[in-house]
Known about the structure:
Elements: E1 2-5, E2 11-14, E3 21-23, H1 39-44, E4 59-65, E5 71-77, H2 79-82, E6 87-91, E7 101-102, E8 109-110, E9 116-117, E10 123-129, H3 132-141, E11 143-148, E12 170-178, E13 187-195, E14 207-212, E15 218-222, H4 227-238, E16 245-249, H5 262-275, E17 279-282, H6 285-291, E18 298-306, E19 312-322, H7 330-339, E20 349-357, H8 372-390, H9 394-399, H10 421-430, E21 460-473, E22 483-490, E23 493-498, H11 507-519, E24 523-526, H12 543-570, E25 578-581, E26 584-587, E27 593-595, H13 596-600, E28 604-611, E29 630-643, E30 649-659, H14 666-685, E31 691-692, E32 695-696, E33 714-721, H15 737-755, E34 761-762
Parallel strand pairs: 4-17, 13-34, 15-16, 19-20, 23-24, 30-33
Antiparallel strand pairs: 1-2, 2-3, 4-10, 5-9, 5-11, 6-10, 7-8, 12-20, 13-18, 14-15, 14-17, 18-19, 21-29, 22-23, 22-28, 25-26, 26-27, 29-30, 31-32
Amino acid sequence: MSGTSDGAGAVTATPAAGVQIPVEPPLHGLGVSLPPADAPAKTEGTFPYAADLWAEGLLWAAVLRSPHPRARILSIDTAPAAQMPGVRVVVTHEDVPGDAGHGRGTADRPVFAKDEVRHHGEPIAAVAADHPDTARLAAAAIAVEYEIQEAVTDPQLAFEAEPLHPDGNLIRHIPLRFGDADAVGEVMVEGLYRIGRQDPAPIGAEAGLAVPRPDGGVEIYTASTDPHTDRDLAAASFGLEPEQVKVVVTGVPGATADREDPGIQLSLGLLALRTGCPVKLAATREESFLAHAHRHPTLLRYRHHADADGKLVKVEAQILMDAGAYADTSADALAAAVSFSCGPYVVPHAVVDGWAVRTNNPPSGHVRGEGAMQVCAAYEGQMDKLAASLGLEPDEIRRRNVMATGDLLPTGQTVTCPAPVAELLRAVKEAPLPELPKDAPEAEWLLPGGPEGAGEPGAVRRGVGYALGMVHMLGAEGTDEVSTATVKVSGSVATVICAAVETGSGFSTLARQIVQEALGVEEVHVAGVDTDQPPAGPACHGRHTWVSGGAVERAAKMVRTQLLQPLAHKFGMSTELLQINDGKITSYDGVLSTTVAEALDGKELWATAQCRPHPTEPLDDEGQGDAFVGLAFCAIRCVADVDIELGTIRVVEMSVAQDVGRVLNPRQLRARIEAGVTQGLGAALMENLRTTRGQVRHPDLTGYALPTALDAPDIRIVELVEDRDVIAPFGAKPASAVPVVTSPAAVASAVRAATGRPIGRLPIRPQAAVAQVVRQ
């Protein structure tokens, strides 16, 4: 008898006679495709997003933003706004009672601009009024006199430009030196790469509601992804103690970055405290594009040395990241970029310099795969150049250099986690290639540009490209990673209390599965998140699967012990000889058999636990140090059709092999990988927030193109390598960041193969994909 899996946990046993006998899959627990509890509410439109909130006596807020990327503020006259009927209050920098600066990484960003504005869209003032239209009109009526300054928008000029900020223009410089700086190879290739400004483009409106409290504090309801950090920033700005500010997390409509511009929350809180009334703000799409953080535009210069057999000898690189006007998390992004600048390859020698600088461009910050995505596009471009120079296939040059467990990063850190990079590359290489489209009228939609495109089928070339990517798990460089969770069980219902925000990563579903696995209780509720709970940290780098999931697991096991100890004592056995399945407790010998509800006997059991991974250390003056807890890897093969006369590109298929550690929820994992690949596709082909001398052009979803279902290729997950990381709870690794990092490089590699062009800029412009020799 043989067995097959449908990928969602169900197994069908097949007798020799060929009769199909369905075998019931487990109903819950780890390894099962448990559906999200909030799926019905989201599909029915009843999910509680921040933009839907309401309160009695509600006022509406609007923010006045700078129309200039750089200017001195000579005067601000709020009288025209304050005198308008329906306006309750107008606030500026003069009304900020506490710390004027805020920021997730570095507190260098003012709540409201004081003496000068440093980027297009910087907040100048905020208004609270009894109607949203009144608030917007009042904000527009505020008279600001500017002295326009020459904006510094080229990060290369920031080194010599006058200081744009009291802290200077240089945020961080990391000089990485590994091995022999004078080493050279028999073959050398060079490249210049530019990565554009990708916006996280949250589909839901960035919104919030602030409600004043009788004790002089304030409650802020918003889609925060890191509520305790937001609370601390708000309390410092308001001149309050942290316990006087409460952040309540509303439904988050997906997050691939920090999600919310903190300035929205700060403006709302100040207005609520000044008026004594609830105040609501829902940002327009234009405001979102202007205010929240974007992926760092990056300029990269690379030189790769290799021997005659294609083995890497040395990598030289210069990485310049544009942080925009403020530092935010740019120091962290730069550390990732420099540390992973050589990719998942064995490189004996490396000389890498990385800089993050301030400019008058829009702010940059945390976006999924920050730092790692930019360098992946560059080092994979270099690997393609090496292959061409040596006459090797692109997959072969990679195979000869791939990293494995026990190898060293250029930071000197030993890769102790599973690193099945060779296996991933082999899986995508051996996957069957898609068929070529037939030259028939009904297949025209398969061509680049679609059925209405102007191209000719004879001008289409197919290219196959490869890319290997890597990301780090959790925070880095000494970040104290910790999360706390409480698990309660009463009757046949369990509850999880943890401040880990569900951003679309599936943590709330995972928490239910963990408790189901440990306690055999099918009905598990995950409580809403607010800052009255102990901190769980930000929702990035796969943190909540590891630290928050680990805390939930430890708390659930503590409750399990409380539940089983009385029974074990009564029957004279250890708790290890008892097991819980489907709500039933049984002993190894079958003597004991009871239900969880009967064992509880009306009692409520609960436990609180923390999870804190092993510590890391900052990079030293030569870029050396054990800065990362763990790593995750991915291989992608891209097949793309390119019209070499028009430069139009159609990605036909993306074959993905990923290092996942352990599959905890098959359907959810596949969805995360597919979403990550699609986001990376956007960065490769279309997503770029364009600016002219610091001025954002077309800050809307008409001018900023996002991939839709029509743009998404066939995404084939050909292998998920379950080589468990022994130091991670459950052995699982992050799922969504590494395909975002890898897929843009794979697309660029496929276009290179189709056109013979170098492709050094993302997103790829049509003119860059026009082949040097077109068809006759």
